[in-house]
Batch of 2 targets.
Target 1
Amino acid sequence: MTNTLHRYSEHYAVAPGPDPAPVDDDYIVFAMATRGVNDDDLAEKYRTFARLALAHNPVNVGDATKGGMYRPQPALNPLAHWKRDERPDPQAVVDGIEGHTTMAAVFRTWEDMEGFVEDLVAADLGVSVNVSAPMDAAARCCKAAGITRHSVEYSIGFQGRLERLPERAVLEIGTMCGHGMVSHAFVRKMLDWVKEGRRTPAQAARYMARFCVCGVFNTARAERLCEQARRGTS
Amino acid sequence: MRIDESRCVACGNCVPICPVGAISIDPVARRARVNRDECVECHACYRGMSKEHLYPPLVRAIRRVAAALRFRFDPEPDICPTDALTPETLAWPRVVRRAFSDPQVPHESTGITGRGTAEVKTNDVTGRVKEGEAGFVIEFGRPGVGARFREIQAMTTALAALGVEFERQNPVTSLMTDPRRGILREDILDEKVLSAIVEVKAGLEQVPLVLGAVREVSRRLTTVVAVGVSTRCDASGGDRLRAILEAEGYPAYRGKTNLGLGRATAGRLS
């Protein structure tokens, strides 16, 4: 399940420029247990993970089997078209944890991520913890938290029929749901709606986040990209 | 997935939601249709859209009046107003589509729980990839293109010829009838999935060889391939892999870093 590995940025363009802009608002920390090894009292370990994450201003927290802080609403009133509850629901994530899953938290700043990792080190949950981010940022985080990297996995980008991939802004937003549940056509529609003034970047980001089933969609980065598209600077 | 004609009001909201573009509006019937050959049974439409459960004839009447007056209603874009999306009970081999496309479904079709393996994410407790080794995660169809197993087999046979080791717990490996040659079951070859991951392991010195083969085969496919390469770090947290990748011209900007915080707590690992 490589759901956070291939988040697209300019660095992975077919012909990247000489100095691609760093991605400095997208850091993911996730936890995963191994059956029979460290899955004792697992629901409580994962609840601790989520509670610690919520103390560091995450833009999303998710349980891969239940969803993130933004979820589809199964029984809306027609008035939702005019007034809809769009608030994130982190408590639903915490309350829904039952056992084996992958827990993830997404941060918009390196400092928030690093603070969370320090808390995880202190909590000593025993489950495997990974950072999915620019490799240098993750290495700095390890150094600051006083830990040594165990293993690394590099994304080396896309190959094959690259002409079937969408334009950069759509790809950058769409790959934030690595499971592919946020379709390119829907991202393009949301970018168009933002440009037409029919929705705000924040609203567009929330619509898209509801389709991400594991909660790793970064609404802050999506909002920034929608705003850049609106200004024509993407 | 199918769309209940008695409930669909042809609002079109589900059309852009489909990750593989399998939904369209039939202009004669005035209903949404699913192209079954293209649908990968990912359930993004059924699970991801919010619902209103409105009375279909009333919604159709309102839409007809609005259309006659050329009024453009500006609805919420992620709602199916009449709950028309209806999952099907899937039989073999079509059930494989859902197993590889819906991230919330266990791999019952392959006998393996979960969409793939934990790769290097739990390497701190499993030791799957060791120092001096490279783990390859070769993913077909994502983002947003989809892939058929016949194309995946083109890659697995090429990799098998190199003598690499397929990960035994991987769902694609479990569909092989001859892992030594990378041959998959004949009856699934035309099934389309949103994504499938092939995992192999080799020595670090073989990284250029394996990636060269992946690149060569990828040129002949009609889908996209995303590649990840992993290794175990040394005692100081360093790794030789990054230099190898960069020397071969691959970007190594982002990825996953296993922090090494995992340990046996259930008392079953010696």
Note: Chain A has a mean pLDDT of 96.
Target 2
Amino acid sequence: MPEILVTEVAPIPTILDAPPAHPFTVPVSATTAAPATESEAPNLEQRLSSARGIFDRVRSIGQSGSLTEAQLEVIEEVLLRSDVGVATTTALLEELKTNGAPNGVAEAIRASLEASFVADRVVRREASEGRVPVWLFVGVNGVGKTTTIGKLAWRAMQDGASVVLAAGDTFRAAAADQLALWAERTGADIVRAAEGADPGSVVHDALGRAEARHADLVLADTAGRRANSTNLLDELAKIRRVADRAPGEVVETFMVLDATTGQNALSQAREFLAAASVTGIVLTKLDGTARGGIVVAIERELGIPVKFVGIGERAEDLIAFDPAVFVRSLLS
Amino acid sequence: MFDALSARLEKVGQSLRSRGRLSDADLDEALAEVRSALLEADVELSVVRAFIEAVRTRVAGENVAQSLTPGQHVIKAVHDQLIEVLGGSPLKITYAAKPPTVILLAGLQGAGKTTTAGKLANWFKSQGRQPYLVGTDLQRPAAVEQLRVLGSQIGVGVFSEASDPVTVARKGVEEATRLGRDVVIIDTAGRLSIDAALMAEVRFIAGAVQPDYTFLVIDAVTGQDAVHTARAFHDTLALSGIIVTKLDYDARGGAVLSARGVVGRPVVFASTGEKMGDFDLFHPDRMASRILGMGDILSLIEQAERTMDADVVADSAGRMLSGQFTLDDFMAQLAQVRKMGSLGGLMKLMPGMNKEMRDAAKNVDDSQLDRIEAIVRSMTPRERRDPSIIDGSRRTRIAKGCGRTVNDVNQLLKQFDQMRKMMKTLGKGGMPGMPGMPGGSGKLAQMAGKVAAARGGELPAGFEALGAGLQAGARPGPASSGPKGKKKKGGRVTPPKTR
């Protein structure tokens, strides 16, 4: 494995130097490839392709019209290794068998994968008249919720919006401190309370602050929680209710998901969808060796769109998700 | 954590159980099921392949023992192979002849290194050591702050300063030596395994402090990428072991197998919850049994042994078996059970728990025990000794005293009575076949008996009471609200008859 390590490491420094060029406000939908998306595409692809050697094998198996068992096996391996999951992989293979590969195997699998991403991907930032729009962030421990909020706050501030951060993670030691540092960096306002305080009250206070100061957006953090505890999910549902009560209005609930996550991501998405009506996924840490293939399963089965992806540590490395780019980079 | 995997393998086992002979086709089918189950559990593909081949060899190379059906034989092979891959016998920590023993924690961002550092320090403290924490994660905002908060929660000193990670690590160890601490735990910055700069940093730290143990902290929800991570860290640091976190998630935790398979080092510790105490040595053999749905009875017994006050328990257990069990004894045992931790956590360890039961266990409401305690405390000493004297007016008084309804009091008394009868039956050596009594405790007693036999007959006293206490206290969350005179069993958890 050392060789692979080396090839993976090499491209990173140059990519880090690449300037960001992505205005925050452009809503990216599955069908419209906005110019902004095009300009970042090589960036994402470059980063993703660093670990994609295996996809070459799919391409290399040629241009035939129908698929052989051996080809299907290679494709199965590729998908399984990307964390797409057994059920989704089986379904994709069935599709391939049915549809054949008139334009080559790589094209067939690309089409199948892309067809898995059909959801509406618009990021909503407008609330009803007189209400403060709230983005609520949920997820399990350690996926990067707080960091994601910091980065999205930065984007919104760049865009000229005024932002209030609600430090709703009152459980993890020093989580509020971490968010406060992001507030300092970005110039966003922050509302926090003592450790162990009721997260709902923090969100409520943040809404009051945002209303009084005519802020454009509230980003509400929540404590990381496992998705298999009814009590913790109930607590989350309550936080969401508080955030959705006037003057607040939850316009997006993002589930933050670590790209290294395996099949459990599906049950996370299912539970958080039920408890907090998740409207989008932020896929973080895609700059590692993990491929994040589980989002294919999530979009297919639950229809929750991925809206942002994190491809680096800098604030500007959190970018809008483009399924075409994602799939293309998987197969390139 | 391995819930779904054990369910899958149970299914394999069942279909095989019904057959007399194992043909090659049967074996292929069984192994295909095992493969799917392992993949769904996030075990990495090449690890799965190696695992399946090893099981095949095992099955082929052995004569089917007379006492086993062919199906059991496959299950046993899977089980044995699981134990082998998961690490055989656990790694035992030996302390450096010249203290302090230095432990370095490394891992990806978000795996839970900082929290693990705190839990590990807490664990060493419980072993009678004097741990010291060093925070070298100067990158993530507030990481050091988080470590300080954890340190103050568990009463362990924390060293860090705003210089560079290698200096902090070196000074931290010096400081620990000066203070006479005998274990130093160094938390490092989270990193993506491909990040050359950070990998170099952790290597420099390792070079500077020469750790006695280097642990990779890995998250149980990790997917196929676990092998990349494990391999990259192992190549950089020569790991001595793995610590797995988030085992309380419903993730199947195949990453444990992957990392173990790739690195060839044992999983040493496991973190199973949010509290500082939810952390212990990882037991591969027990985990393998758990994967196969055999419950984690050994963990339960050990936990019981560690926390129960033997005298108190032995005392009441004796009376219990002779049918003279009083509400005072009941309270004493309840207190013992509660010392062991949350009921939900305990129930998850019990064998014979199917998915429904486990789901119920996750939501077991410990406050139910508070209510039981309140009711019993509202009784006079005489009533506690002899509940049969509790008539209507006494019931009303008790209910008023504890703020519950008469129904609640009735229910408790009824349950207590049933429990006492069952204990008496047990004491006479009969198997519990009482109508209306949930099979769970019977099964538990049965299992406990087996384990006791395996351990040379010594069973921790009061183990039966544990089952009883759980029954009295455990109710599924949704059913626990408000008094319920109408429901005849009062929401008691009735384990479905499995298999």
Note: Residues 3-86 of chain B form a domain with the Four Helix Bundle (Hemerythrin (Met), subunit A) fold (CATH 1.20.120.140).
